[in-house]
Fold this sequence. Notes:
The complex is a heterotrimer of chains A (213), B (366) and C (744). By secondary structure, chain B is mainly alpha-helical.
Amino acid sequence: MFIDPQRCIGCRACVSACRECDTHKGYSMIFVDYIDRSETTATMPTVCMHCTEPTCALVCPADAIKQNEDGVVMSALKPRCLDCRNCVNACPFGVPKYNSSMHLMMKCDMCFDRTSEGLQPMCASVCPTGAIAFGTYEQIVPLRRTKPVNAHVFGNQHVETKVYLMLPTDVDEVKVDGCGVFEGRVAVEPGQAATEESWIDTQVEESDKRNEF
Amino acid sequence: MSGSRSNGFVENVNYRRPTYLGILASGLLTALVIIGSRNLEHFDSALFGYTIASIVALGAIVFRYAVWLQRPATRVYWLRGWQLFRDRKKLFKNTTNAAETIGKNLIAQNFIFKRGFRRWFTHFLLMWGSLLAAAITFPLSFGWVHFKLEGDRGYRAYVFGFPTAVMDGRSVLAWIQFHSLDIAAVMVIAGCALAIHRRLTDRGAIASQTFLLDFTPHLLLLAISVSGLMLTASSLWFDGYMYSFIALTHQAVVIMTLFYLPFGKLFHIVQRPASIGVELYQKRSREMEQAVCPRCGTMFIGQLWIDDLKKVVTELGFDYRLENGRTLQDYCPRCKRVMRGLAYAGLQDRLEPVFYGTRADEEEKV
Amino acid sequence: MSKVEHFEQIIDQFGPHLHDEPWGGWQAGRVIDRVVPTHCPYCGVQCGMNLLVSEEHVVGFEPRYDFPVNEGKLCPKGVTAYLQTHHPDRLLYPLIKRNGNFERASWDEALNLVTLKFKEIQSKYGKDAIGVYSGSSLTTEKTYLMGKFARAGLGTRYIDYNGRLCMVSAAAGNNKAFGIDRAANPWSDIPLAEVLILAGANCAETFPILNKYLWQQRDNGGRWIVIDPRETATARQGDLHLQLKPGTDVAVANGMLNVIVREGLIDEEFIQTRTNGWEDTRTAVEQFTPDIASQISGVPADKIVQAGLLYGRAKTGMIMHARGIEHHSNGVDNVLSYINIVLATGKIGDPGRGYGTITGQGNGQGGREHGQKADQLPGQRSINDPEHRKYICDFWGLPEDELPQAGVSVVEMFDKMREGEIKAFLSICNNGMVSLPDINNIRRSLEGLEFNVNIDFFMSESSRYADVVLPGTTWSEDEGVTASAEGRVVKINKAIDPPGEAKEDWWIINEIGRRMGRGQYFQFNSAREIFDEMRVASKGGKADYFGITYEKIDKQDGVFWPCPTEEHTGTPRLFNDKEFYHLDKKAKFHPIEYFGADEKPDDEFPLILTSGRVVYQYLSGNQTRRIGFLVQQCPEPYVEIHPETAMKLRVNDGERVKVISRRGEGIFPALVVRTIRPDTIFIPYHWGEHLAVNQLTNPKLDPTSKIPEYKACAARIEKIHSRELPILGKGRKGTSLSEVQKGK
């Protein structure tokens, strides 16, 4: 699977289609966030990146999060999940969602019901621009001018994932270190912290920020 | 680097203590069997196989539980849960909270109800059927309970060797008691049928289930219930036809199930009560200082909670410390996603523009 | 007579209510009985999709990977489209308004009332006292039937359609320049173009699936020039963004052509042999030097030069435009000024070289071909042309003197209602109370009617004013063809029978026609019968459907018209032979002068208000404002303001402000964003009543196309010191749309 945020038009077709996935029918497990609506229309689509060493699985006290033989990190096993939310808050990508009343964590499992039958995941099927694309490394490289990278850096931590991010050819990794500021075409005055977000960004429900579904 | 982390965790598991604990638990149960049956006086030797299997299975479960508690995250919850519970000022509140959790989660199982009524009903049948059967069969096979005929039709039950009231053998109550195992079997069979039906039709379940993990427990429970019912049928209507063969089969599947307990899906039976601790932990930390996302200012989780989590993450070998002195886990999930978006948008020295088109500016300047 | 008296009660009864679950809830274990391949009911891209049917209910969708246009891709509206079908707000039986309340009636009762009233009014005031207002989200069969119904059934000259509010400027411009009204190239040409000019087209939000082709072009190394007053997602992703003042397209286009001429990038041979009128046009653009164009449009001169060079120097290139340049009182001029660039560089009629308008509505193309336009007869024939009139009259068996003359555009039709010339009204597939400009006047028109019939499957803002509301079908309950924005005729297939007592729209119209005593013209028993009649009716016209059959559409994944014979496989690219559809087979240049928008900002109204869409809502929102998911993403309109302007006005982000124009005012939360020009504000238009931007917009019409000027009017913003937060936000999951509607 390949994510190319540059192409994302923020239409959230993926978010609505995600609910059609049979492993979490009716609940969307994908995110499309404005990165700073007051400056730009740019949005960031986030699916589970399926880490090779999933932090979520390791911090799970109930050992409920399993990786299958293809490296897909599955939703928590229903009988085991204790709703402790360690995974929700430990995940470096902010992916797992939880529901307290169900005592359940669910997350993107790459539409396991579809991919196991050779179909594309819902999000990649519907994505108009190819910001989310499904295929093999060999398939995607000749189609794009960007290159797939699956190395992510969060401070001192390197994370390798099954899902690739499409990056400019001269960049090898995305490094998250500190909050970050969107420096659009309109220059932000030096020293001016652009953490004031637009209401359309911030006034999502509190439960959305905690990843409650 | 990353490989050694998880391996390190696996290597660090200490098997000595869990082994001792397992043996200790088995020993304790053996002692209880001997005491409860008054030096095996009331022990039914026909049930010897069951008893031995139970003793071994208990040891295995305790062993497994102890190993499980060594997972860093589990240990933190375990220790912190007990520490919070023992807080003297809140002991009463903690007890009522725990009781409430037991009532809602373990008995009423509201959370399964929220996942779906059918699911809840299936689980209700399976759980209460199995518990009912267990509550009858274990004391019987351990010799903790036995009956004596008194008079024409009166029975007196002895529990741990102590006599209880006499009961009319032909009363409705007695009928229910004698047939409660059959009732339990019917409940379990119905539950298994519902569960298996779901597993055969629900496309989500079909995709992720495996035979060993998801069908085996149902098939075992079905085998126990059916063979148990056959025992009743054989003795009631067929003059004990094939009784001993059926009994042997029944015993075999029960023993298999007992040995399966610590490893498969059924381990959740002993694992689930941990939710009492988890919920207590969540409730108490909600009353304490809250962690505030440094980027958006949301209070998204208790500070104690996030601190414990950060310790666990570090212990597991991760290092999410950022340049600004914070740790990635300090941020709320949404901000983590946005920060990654911003990092992506800010990629320097690019050949391809990332979030706004500047190619034309660069190359075609007139 | 038609006033809305029990407003709250009507909303309680008929919605909009939010609904966000398939029939029977979300279930993963359902047995799917049928998979019905069809198309999305919404925009002009007409994406393929499969509907899943279980127990005679539409319960979900599955991507239709094998349909070449979208290859399974869908936007959020398409994904949730199936939730319409069993929406609790669906109208399931005919309604007659009595004492201000809608009461259930039988079909006989309702239809008899309609025919009785129509006859009464026509005998009292004359045939033309009935106005018919149709729409372009209907299948082509139905649009053909609407034209026939008005002319042959009612005998009124007053029929028009809501495409008048959509892309009619493009249609007029195309006809003037090329003599035919259709996108010149199929979308599969887009990836072959080195340079793509997108003028007034926010593809990201309005035609999401078109982005597939745009990005293919980009992956091939192509470039986009985006001309838009806002930095939309498309503009952000493009290579060059000309952020012009709304209404100044002529200046930008002429400026670019000026650069192209100056640099000698024109195609002399093509101009000489294939076109007329170049000299006048060249003289007209001479004065539009980049500096002048820049002064008028506010786009830096070097960007205009850059754009002109990029497009002019490229071997292949396409220009596509949408509502941004068309919704103007000089919309046709805007269109023609861009066509001039196409013709001057000769970039037309080859792979990757071409031109197209991106039609908005699902059947925006098909809906403007077969005679529901005020001046049109089937096959893009003209009602003013005696030959054309004769062909259709002979074909229908209608005496020629019974065929009415041309009517007027829809906005003028509403004027005539206020003037008392039109007394009764039949509308289908539109929602004027949201979509027409200056809705306060529109309301007066509707309230003054003697009798008002509306056909719809949801109670729209306009249906509330009707005396009789007849329940029609959604797209999933009927079959028929539509023509997508590239001219590809595709087939909508029926998934299930209409629910309740709802009936196919063609049945309703056919039945009214029959009951009006015109049974000889209305003998249809199925959509296919209408299609077959329409094929012959269009034969020999420009939009020739004669060779198209349902079977051919299935076999070829759609057929591009014109398709004159049964052996013909359709015409994906027009003008392949560089022959155009004027009599001399040449294309025409039109010298365009710059006039600008009707209302220019002044001291009293210093800002330019422009309006547009959001990706989550579709047109007047009657369908999408009921789908929970879509409403959650965008529950109410907002006003986009640039931070500099906001600072001057001391308006904070998220604060509710009053936006005022010469026609009305509305209160909207401010979205302070750097992606809009400081002199411009933007409000999306999908809402009605007090949330409608069309309380403010200018009803000034383009003289040729009669399109209203939605995209530019003068406005000002006032602070109202409201502490109320936007609905988006804290309690957004709990907010019901009814509350939004009631203004609670």
